[in-house]
């Protein structure tokens, strides 16, 4: 009998091999089985296309030129080697003289826009259209001045609504006050504004209020006072921050004195009550009735004399205070008259500044029995701080952001004196370089690309 054969396992091995073959994939690369990428379409990726919805001005220009078939060829002509010293940003003496001469020759073109003529018969639409045309022509003149004369102008206000606010403030004001920064008064002063005020009416007065003057030394203030005196301009030195701190300290001292006075009065009342109690007890004593009567009569006489003395002293002090109050304005008015006639380096206080406003305008007023003072200046020079210091409490919001005030507003300091606050306006002026604009806080420091020219200018100026 032979050996039995093992059962056949061919079917199981075939299934295992088939499963392994499927997991490994097909052997032939050209097989059509399990194929997902046919590559039978156009390959857009090879062009490296990118959707463009927005372009900068230079990119738009280059794209337009490419579409038009324009070619640009770099030509190396008029080569100029710039030395390393030129990166300091300082101008040579010859360049400084040349730029100063250009500024003097073209000073008459550096003007502010004028409001076109209008009367009660002019409609609002006609006036607005005329204002737009005048403003557009003014901007064209400044652009032409920059291109032809190769001059550098400071950034100026390009919003017509702000200039309309200035026109209204000048028209309704009797005195136009230019508030300038004491660290560079000439940069923030606009001479054409002074001419425009006189063009509207000869009865209007101009005055320059140099704010932050506490940062200057007395010698520097005296030099500026003499300079503006030769220019024939009335100038007053003022510090809104220092005056506000002084007024706050005085108010605090007055409150402390009132509290001390109230405590003293309470203590004297307690003493008087104790004395009256002692007097009543002495009167009730049977031993010395006559003496008590005489003593009490003497005491009553003494009290009456003291009360009369107190009353006399009270009336005298009131009259003296009244006399002092009457004399003080006269004294300050004498000072203000001197300041108006001759510029002094004196740092004025609030009361003196108000007396200057009252005594300065003596001609025809815009409103009867009222003086309107218009405050004009660059943004962030201290117009709102000045108004808050004069008024005595916060009437105008203050912000470090330039252009915080959007519309002019009128505030009454006292009967007959009104302040008119104008939005901050950046007026066009000449500068020598962009480094000067950065040092004068005209250009923001966070947009500065090269820090060497401003630092070099500060170092060179501090050595003079």
From TrEMBL:
Assigned keywords, A-Z: Cytoplasm, GTP-binding, Hydrolase, Nucleotide-binding
Biased composition (Basic and acidic residues): 325-334
Pfam families: MMR_HSR1 (PF01926)
GO biological process: ribosomal subunit export from nucleus
GO molecular function: GTP binding; GTPase activity
Gene Ontology CC annotation, any one: cytosol
Compositionally biased region (Acidic residues): 256-280, 296-324
InterPro entries: G_CP_dom, GNL1-like, GTP-bd, P-loop_NTPase
Presence of the UniProt keyword Methyltransferase in the record: no
Primary localization: cytoplasm
The CP-type G domain, residue ranges: 163-428
Compartments where found: Cytoplasm; Nucleus, Cajal body
Region of interest (Disordered), ranges: 252-334
Domain of life: Eukaryota
Biased composition (Polar residues): 286-295
Annotated catalysed reactions: GTP + H2O = GDP + phosphate + H(+)
Keyword field contains Cytoplasm: yes
Function text: Functions as a GTPase. May act by mediating the release of NMD3 from the 60S ribosomal subunit after export into the cytoplasm during the 60S ribosomal subunit maturation.
Name of protein: Large subunit GTPase 1 homolog
Originating species: Pelobates cultripes (Western spadefoot toad)
């Amino acid at each position: 009998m032979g050996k039995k054969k093992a059962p056949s396992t061919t079917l199981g091995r075939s299934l295992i091999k088939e499963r392994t073959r499927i997991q490994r994939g097909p052997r032939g690369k050209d097989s059509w089985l399990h194929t997902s990428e046919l590559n039978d379409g156009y390959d857009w990726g090879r062009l490296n296309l990118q959707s463009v919805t927005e372009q900068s001005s230079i990119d738009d220009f280059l794209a337009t030129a490419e579409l038009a078939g324009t070619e640009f060829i770099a030509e190396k002509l008029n080569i100029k080697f710039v030395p390393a010293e030129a990166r300091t940003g300082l101008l040579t003496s010859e360049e400084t003289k040349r730029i100063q001469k250009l500024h003097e020759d073209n000073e008459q073109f550096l003007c502010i826009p004028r409001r076109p003529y209008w009367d009660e018969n002019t409609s609002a639409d006609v006036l607005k259209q005329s204002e737009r045309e005048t403003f557009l022509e003014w901007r064209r003149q400044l652009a032409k001045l920059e291109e032809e004369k190769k001059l550098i102008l400071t950034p100026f206000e390009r919003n017509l609504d702000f200039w309309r606010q200035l026109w209204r403030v000048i028209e309704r004001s009797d005195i136009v006050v230019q508030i300038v920064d004491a660290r560079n008064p000439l940069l923030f002063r606009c001479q054409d504004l002074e001419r425009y005020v006189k063009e509207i009416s000869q009865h209007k007065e101009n005055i320059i209020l140099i704010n932050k003057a506490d940062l200057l030394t007395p010698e520097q203030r005296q030099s500026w006072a003499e300079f503006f005196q030769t220019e024939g301009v009335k100038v007053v030195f003022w510090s809104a921050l220092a005056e506000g701190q002084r007024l706050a300290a005085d108010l605090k001292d007055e409150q402390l004195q009132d509290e001390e006075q109230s405590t003293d009065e309470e203590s004297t009342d307690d003493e008087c009550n104790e004395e009256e109690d002692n007097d009543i007890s002495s009167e009730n004593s049977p031993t010395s009735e006559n003496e008590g009567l005489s003593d009490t009569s003497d005491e009553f006489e003494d009290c009456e004399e003291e009360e009369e003395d107190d009353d006399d002293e009270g009336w005298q002090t009131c009259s003296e205070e009244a006399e002092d109050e009457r004399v003080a304005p006269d004294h300050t008015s004498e000072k203000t008259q001197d300041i108006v006639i001759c510029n002094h380096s004196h740092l004025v206080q609030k009361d003196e500044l108000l007396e200057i406003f009252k005594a300065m305008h003596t001609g025809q007023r815009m409103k009867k029995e009222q003086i309107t003072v218009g405050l004009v200046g660059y943004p962030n020079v201290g117009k709102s701080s000045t108004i808050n210091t004069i008024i005595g409490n916060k009437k105008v919001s203050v912000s470090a952001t330039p252009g915080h005030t959007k519309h002019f507003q009128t505030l009454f300091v006292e009967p007959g004196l009104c302040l008119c606050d104008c939005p901050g306006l950046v007026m066009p002026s000449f500068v020598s370089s962009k480094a000067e604009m950065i040092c004068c806080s005209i250009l923001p420091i966070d947009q500065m690309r090269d820090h060497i020219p401003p630092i070099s200018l500060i170092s060179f100026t501090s050595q003079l």
